[in-house]
Specification:
Among the domains are: 143 residues, Alpha Horseshoe (Serine Threonine Protein Phosphatase 5, Tetratricopeptide repeat), CATH 1.25.40.10; 82 residues, Serine Threonine Protein Phosphatase 5, Tetratricopeptide repeat, CATH 1.25.40.10. It is built from 45 helices and no strands. The N and C termini lie far apart (71 Å).
């Protein structure tokens, strides 16, 4: 259920009682006392000031670092929290609470060896330590669930108020689909700690998992009774109703928030968002206009109204932004409104108007990062790469954790033919914002795109150490596991996704992919159907279901399933396109074309039907028809690099390398990180053009592959070095290629040619003979034969 965010194996901050200060400096003790008080109140900024004072007085004070760790953990700065806990444990190895925190981080990050070492150190100091027992519980939960259940039960028997243990035991039962036991554990935990909100929340979630919605609702209402002024409790209840399609109850609950806090904009904003999504835009508009009349100086309401108008393309948003400017002038709200107007102007290609607005903002506030970001985007669109780089650098300097700015800066360096600088920007993004998941993900994707798969996975591992439940990281990790053919790791990751995010399709979809790859088709279908049930779109799950039927040549079942989808959603292009694919597989091309053209009619901006129609033409050996179809698609979707790549491949099949290279250049102009386009273009420049300028361009494109783990990419740069006469660079790379994929004849041929050119006759003979052994055709086969004769 989306309205809950309980950490299933979370490290819960324990309250630390201040022991006597003994001979410690009185000022240090006073600062520490104040810091802990502010921390308890949730005033983290003031707490940090006091704790910094503590550590300034005594930089070797373990308790100060431990408390700073608690603060950073509260603020979700997990890397800093870990650093402080580890420092505390290093300064005072007998500080059990610090040691336990360090151990938890190791366990949650998957480093079980270090977690166990830390646990051993704790029990050596105090064999009965509850902190040690809780750490052992976490380690067992990660390594042996059956033992974890028994051990956690023993902790609760010893002390029923241990919330961590109660939550862990309930989670373990839930994971094993034993919801009744989980509910029983949570109820007993609540009896021991009746005001512990997290236990109530987990109980409500568990009821919902068990489809006991009556008790889930009652539990959510009980949470409200714990603290009737806590707005988040009402939000959870309203979200529950909305997910159950009990819209009247949901709206009533959102309105309750407004009645509790009429001067707090949150209630109005939540109600309007709900109405826009589940009722009507006009109702949301009325709510916001009424709220603005009652609270004219709460500008977030006006910005929300403008956002609503913009989403519905009413055109009224400009009036709202201009009204904000009239009311607030050059105050922050007025500058924000100008930036929004600049975005609209840019969308309308009114660059002059956008530039004027951005200048007004920067004249009033030279450090307005939104304006600098917009200025950089304009420069990028105008291919003023140096201007764009300057603007984006300004933003990154001020906001190193702004993922968009870092990504745009790296992208612009790539456009400016500076791949090393692009990679450096992304690497520094991780270093400068180590708590920001997007930095790791973007850097990992870049590394993956340049063939550095192992390095990419290491970055995802780093992210999972500090954010073990980060969804995108888990999805990427699962794909890496498949690439490594580590199916045990893959299944473990997917189970984590399914358990942690039961309401989203991703885990079921990827598990379906696993079963399909192993030809366990019934299991795959079950997972895909579950994914489809949780998805807002028919893709990719319906496509996967179709592929499973096609793999078994069960055409009738595929057609029946797709017709079922068409009957439910007759205006949806997706099932029509998939039906066309089934007919193509049956070689019923007339039916296929009719179905695919229907999909194109329903959604002319969807690229897949164009590919389907092109496939029909290719099946008929009608190359001109396929080319015409892809060109038609690009008139509607001029920046679709996948369509471009398919067009380029047809040109290659026709040996029209000039047009193929032109298309690949267009792809790289849009997406400089597109490794496949860079590789294919480099190969053609080297083999089909071959002039010095083309070879230089090929080298510029392919140097990104020098550290790649992909043998095909490595072969490209190695062969280019051969072509440019740089044997000292070519041979080590081509040797690495043959080590990775020596069964591919052309790779042996390339290495043999490099040895031949370097004067190593014996090595040349060895590898050229290996290239010819298979009898397979490859470009250069006749040349290899001739050179062997000469040798």
């Amino acid at each position: 259920m989306k309205f809950f965010k309980p950490g299933l194996i979370s490290a819960i901050c324990l309250t630390i009682a201040l022991s006597g200060c003994g001979g410690e400096d009185a000022r240090k003790a006073a600062f520490l006392e104040k810091g802990k008080a502010y921390l308890a109140e949730g005033n983290y900024d003031k707490a940090k000031v006091e704790l910094k004072n503590v550590l300034q007085i005594d930089p070797k004070f373990a308790e100060g670092y431990y408390t700073m760790g608690l603060l950073e953990e509260k603020r979700q700065n997990l890397r800093r929290a870990f650093a402080n806990y580890r420092k505390a444990a290093e300064l005072d190895p007998t500080h059990i609470k610090a040691q336990a925190k360090v151990g938890r981080f190791y366990a949650i990050g998957g480093d079980m060896e270090k977690a166990q070492e830390t646990l051993d150190a704790i029990f050596a100091i105090d064999p009965a330590s509850m902190d040690g027992k809780l750490l052992k519980m976490i380690i067992l939960a990660r390594t042996d669930e059956k033992k974890a259940i028994d051990y956690t039960n023993s902790i609760i028997s010893e002390d029923p108020t241990q919330i961590d243990a109660v939550r862990m035991l309930a989670m373990l039962y839930t994971k094993n689909k034993d919801n009744d036991k989980a509910i029983s554990v949570l109820k007993k935990g609540i009896e021991a700690q009746p005001k512990e909100r997290m236990l109530w929340m987990q109980l409500a979630e568990t009821y919902a998992r068990a489809d006991d919605f009556k008790n889930a609702e009652a539990t959510l209402k009980n949470i409200i009774n714990l603290d009737p002024e806590n707005i988040s409790s009402y939000i959870n209840l309203a979200s529950f109703y909305a997910q159950r399609d009990e819209l009247d109850k949901a709206e009533e609950t959102f309105r309750k928030i407004i009645s509790i806090a009429p001067e707090n904009e949150k209630g109005y904003l939540l109600l309007a968002e709900f109405q826009a999504r589940r009722r009507s835009v006009s109702e949301a508009e009325k709510t916001l206009i009424s709220a603005i009349e009652k609270n004219p100086d709460i500008y977030s309401l006006r910005f929300s109204l403008a956002k609503l108008y913009r989403a519905t393309k009413s055109g009224k948003e400009t009036d709202v932004y201009n009204e904000i400017i009239n009311r607030s002038g050059f105050e922050p709200e007025g500058l924000k409104a100008r930036n929004e107007l600049a975005k609209i102007a840019m969308g309308n290609e009114d660059i002059k108007g956008a530039t004027k607005l951005i200048k007004e903002v920067l004249d009033a506030n030279p450090r307005d990062n939104t304006a600098w970001l917009l200025k950089g985007k304009i420069a990028l669109a105008q291919k003023d790469y140096n201007g764009a780089i300057s603007a984006f650098r300004t933003v990154v300097k001020e906001q190193p954790d702004l993922v968009e700015a870092v990504q745009l800066l790296a992208f612009t360096h790539l456009k400016n033919n500076e791949p090393e600088l692009a990679e450096e920007v992304l690497r520094r993004g991780v270093e400068n914002a180590p708590e920001t998941p997007g930095m790791y993900i973007n850097y990992a994707r870049h590394l993956q795109n340049t063939g550095k798969t192992e390095e990419a996975e290491k970055e995802i591992d780093k992210l999972l150490q500090i954010k073990p439940r980060q969804l995108e990281a888990l999805k990427m990790k699962a794909k890496f596991a498949v690439a490594r053919k580590d199916m045990d790791d893959f299944k473990g990751i997917i189970e984590t996704i399914k358990t942690t995010y039961p309401g989203i399709p991703d885990g079921y979809q990827q598990m379906g992919d696993y079963h399909a790859a192993n030809k366990q088709y019934e299991k795959a279908l079950k997972e895909y159907e579950t994914a489809l049930k949780h998805s807002k779109s028919l893709l990719p799950s319906l496509a996967s279901i179709t592929k499973v039927y096609l793999a078994q040549k069960q055409f009738d079942k595929a057609i029946a399933r797709l017709n079922e989808a068409i009957n439910k959603q007759p205006e949806n292009a997706i099932p029509f396109e998939l039906l066309g694919e089934v007919y193509i597989a049956q070689k019923k091309l007339a039916k296929a074309e009719k179905s695919i053209r229907k999909a194109m009619e329903l959604n002319p901006k969807w690229p897949l039907p164009y590919s389907g129609l092109a496939t029909i033409y290719l099946t008929q050996k009608n190359m001109d028809g396929a080319i015409r179809t892809y060109k038609q698609a690009l008139e509607i979707l001029p920046n679709d690099t996948q369509i471009m790549a398919k067009l380029a491949q047809i040109y290659e099949r026709q040996h029209d390398y000039k047009n193929a290279m032109k298309v690949y250049e267009n792809i790289l102009d849009i997406d400089p990180e597109n490794a496949l386009a860079a590789n294919n273009l480099a190969v053609m420049l080297a083999d089909k053009a071959g002039d010095p300028a083309s070879l230089q361009r090929a080298k510029e494109l392919a140097t990104r592959f020098e550290k790649s783990s992909n043998p095909g990419f490595l072969d490209t740069i190695g062969w280019i070095y051969y072509k440019t006469g740089e044997m000292e660079k070519a041979i080590p790379i081509l040797e690495k290629v043959v080590q990775k994929a020596g069964n591919i004849p052309v790779f042996q041929y390339h290495l043999g040619m490099a040895y031949h050119k370097s004067g190593d006759r014996e090595a040349a003979k060895l590898h050229l003979n290996k290239a010819l052994e298979s009898g397979s055709k490859f470009q250069g086969r006749e040349e290899a034969k001739q050179i062997l004769k000469d040798l």
